[in-house]
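Here is the promised in-class demo. Please do not try to memorize the tokens; focus on the logic of going from shape to residues.
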């Protein structure tokens, strides 16, 4: 056989049999029982054992959704994607980089089904029957489908990957030898996306976020000690069932002539009497309240049957003279204060699990929101993740990342990577982490279980899933508003128009940092930290993604200010000061230049932010039309790009970059009015009186200069 003939000869293809393990060549979670792994012959493949993120729920792919005639070849292809060591070489031939992550195989099969379903409808019996002309018809079908641009692109990408693996598939599963659509990429075949890729994640509205953070802080700082104490009292009682015996002496049904548990019953009754507590009660079907016999049995470590059958024990309670409460409450007396009063008079036994879950949700909200980390990163934090930097005295949160965690071959690292830079956290986050660590003894910070170990019932990892934490965020708001309704409070959490999700927290944080609205409760002290240190900490590198959120928000904020200024100028606003002409030029020119502009990446937003038309900064009683060479303030380095920004808190009065708008003059008038009251007070200390008098004279001069320059002299 000649060399050319040998090269053209079909290569031997390895085909996995029905009994082959699906995750044959993938890293598995520690402790995985390989005998339970899915095999190729299964209709549904469980991929969860190869997904190392603890917050991920059960993940599987269902081949019953694939047309029957293509089901076997689809299994072989997906198995190759999961296990093929030759993947990178094959994919480079198709101008596609990277081996797919295990979780991505779910969407990969869905995207491949687009082709297989189309083939099934058009009567194809084998992938090998498809011609380049057929692929052109499929391309037309994708173009005409009412789908998003991104989904269309994913459908075409799935065809390319199927073609890239053609030599590892049996002959009936191979697409034509020529690359699909002449090797052209989706952006050529479909055109560039017209969608605004600024960031589609909706922000949580300001009133909702402000009050949610306030109540989360109350839980962590004011209610936590009571809830943790209630949990300590609750745990020994939770799950007590007939037949479970205590480590102590086994109690038996009272025998005539013997004390049995009577001494313990008497001691319990006296403890209720001494502490002034009513007996725990439950309501019968006829509406009458009686002692809660199952709960009393728990307190005595007796089986429920023992309590029900021993009338002597029951009579001791019924004849004690102690009232029966309308509910079953713990012995704990809450000490946490809300507006100077105990936040609750007592904690019911049946409310403990919900309170613990709500407290844990409050901890997550503070950690995820005030650090800016991704939800999955927060859920995968471990006990001991909080550290105090000895030099900077800042709290640091150390953890793993999964986004952009790739090895030298560009493949995703399943176990993630430890971040080179920790998230910088305020003291409130440190408190929240400390509280969360006291709620359980698990290694993961936010475990799927809190009150009882439910790991055996959970198919996913140790951590709570994104779906469960999203549910809990909304239940947190429900609990707060229900509490406010019961106590006649007005500080409710306004319901956001959209459902709360953890993915919205980062976007909202970026908005607050850039807008810095007043009234940001519980994070007010954080602002000084956020503005200066955010990019050193949780936004430390662009791989974190957070600087892009900041860049977009700063762009939007600056553009809104520019549009507002343009409207005021068109309405005849007078501007004074040495930089007035530059201000008018930048406002009018910037509005024309940036109106309707779409930003597609964070880098593009950062680049646009350096444009001179956007270098307008509001200060106290003045506006800075910033030009670095002529600025007389101490410039602040911008930590997320190479630009510098003015120090509007340390503005030099003689700086030529200053102008004053009508709003600025109104601020000066308000300050002058306050100073006149001080200057008119003859009892003011001489030093203060002289200082305020000079400041008042300066303000009056600035206001007079502004009015003198007003066109037409229409002074107010």
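The designed amino acids, position by position:
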């Amino acid at each position: 056989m000649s060399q050319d003939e040998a090269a053209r000869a079909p290569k031997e293809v390895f085909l996995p049999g029905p009994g082959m393990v699906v995750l044959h060549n993938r890293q598995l979670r520690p402790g995985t029982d390989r005998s339970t792994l899915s095999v190729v012959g299964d209709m549904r493949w469980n991929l969860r054992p190869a997904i190392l993120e603890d917050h991920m729920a059960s993940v599987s792919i269902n081949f019953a959704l694939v047309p029957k005639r293509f089901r076997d070849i689809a299994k072989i292809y997906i198995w190759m994607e999961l296990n093929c060591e030759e993947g990178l070489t094959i994919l480079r031939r198709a101008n596609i980089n990277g081996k797919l992550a295990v979780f991505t195989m779910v969407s990969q099969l869905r995207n491949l089904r687009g082709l297989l379903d189309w083939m099934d409808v058009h009567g194809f019996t084998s992938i090998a029957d498809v011609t380049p002309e057929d692929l052109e018809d499929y391309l037309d079908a994708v173009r005409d489908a009412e789908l998003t641009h991104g989904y269309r692109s994913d459908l075409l990408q799935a065809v390319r990957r199927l073609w890239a693996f053609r030599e590892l598939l049996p002959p009936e599963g191979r697409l034509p030898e020529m690359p699909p659509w002449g090797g052209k990429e989706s952006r050529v075949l479909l055109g560039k996306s017209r969608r605004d890729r600024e960031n589609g994640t909706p922000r949580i509205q300001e009133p909702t976020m402000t009050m949610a953070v306030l109540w989360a802080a109350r839980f962590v700082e004011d209610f936590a000690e009571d809830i943790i104490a209630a949990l300590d009292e609750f745990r020994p009682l939770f799950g007590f069932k007939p037949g479970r015996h205590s480590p102590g002496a086994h109690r038996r049904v009272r025998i005539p002539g013997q004390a049995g548990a009577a001494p313990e019953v008497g001691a319990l009754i006296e403890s209720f009497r001494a502490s002034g507590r009513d007996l725990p009660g439950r309501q019968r079907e006829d509406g009458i309240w009686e002692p809660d016999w199952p709960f009393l049995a728990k307190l005595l470590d007796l089986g429920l049957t023992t309590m029900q059958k021993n009338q002597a024990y029951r009579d001791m309670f019924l004849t004690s003279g102690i009232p029966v409460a309308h509910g079953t409450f713990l012995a704990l007396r809450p000490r946490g204060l809300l507006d100077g009063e105990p936040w609750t008079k007592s904690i019911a036994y049946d409310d403990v699990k919900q309170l613990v879950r709500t407290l844990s949700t409050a901890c997550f909200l503070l950690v995820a929101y005030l650090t800016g980390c991704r939800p999955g990163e927060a859920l995968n934090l471990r006990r001991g993740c909080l550290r105090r930097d000895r030099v900077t005295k800042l709290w640091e949160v150390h953890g793993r990342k999964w986004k952009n965690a790739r090895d030298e071959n560009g493949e995703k690292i399943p176990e993630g990577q430890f971040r080179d830079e920790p998230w910088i956290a305020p003291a409130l986050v440190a408190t929240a982490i400390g509280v969360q660590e006291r709620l359980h003894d698990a290694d993961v910070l936010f475990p799927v279980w809190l009150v009882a170990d439910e790991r055996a019932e959970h198919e996913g990892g140790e951590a709570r899933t994104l779906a469960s934490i999203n549910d809990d965020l909304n239940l947190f708001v429900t609990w707060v508003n229900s509490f406010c309704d019961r106590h006649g409070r007005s500080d409710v959490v306004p319901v956001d128009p959209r459902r709360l999700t953890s993915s919205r927290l980062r976007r909202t944080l970026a908005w607050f940092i850039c807008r810095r609205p007043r009234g940001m409760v519980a994070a007010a002290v954080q602002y000084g930290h956020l503005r200066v240190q955010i990019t050193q900490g949780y936004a430390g590198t662009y791989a974190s993604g957070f600087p892009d959120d900041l860049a977009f928000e700063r762009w939007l904020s600056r553009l809104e200010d520019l549009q507002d200024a343009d409207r005021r100028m068109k309405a005849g606003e007078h501007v004074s000061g040495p930089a007035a002409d530059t201000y008018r030029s930048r406002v009018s020119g910037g509005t024309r230049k940036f109106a309707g502009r779409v930003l597609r990446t964070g880098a593009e937003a950062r680049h646009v932010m350096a444009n001179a038309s956007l270098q307008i900064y509001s200060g106290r009683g003045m506006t800075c039309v910033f030009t670095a060479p002529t600025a007389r303030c101490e410039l602040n380095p911008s930590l997320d790009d190479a630009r510098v920004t003015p120090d509007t808190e340390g503005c030099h009065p003689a700086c030529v970059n200053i102008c004053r708008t009508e709003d600025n003059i109104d601020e000066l008038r308000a300050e002058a009015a306050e100073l006149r009251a001080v200057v008119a007070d003859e009892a003011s200390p001489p030093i203060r009186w002289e200082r305020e008098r000079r400041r008042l004279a300066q303000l009056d001069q600035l206001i007079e200069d502004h009015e003198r320059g007003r066109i037409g002299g229409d002074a107010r």
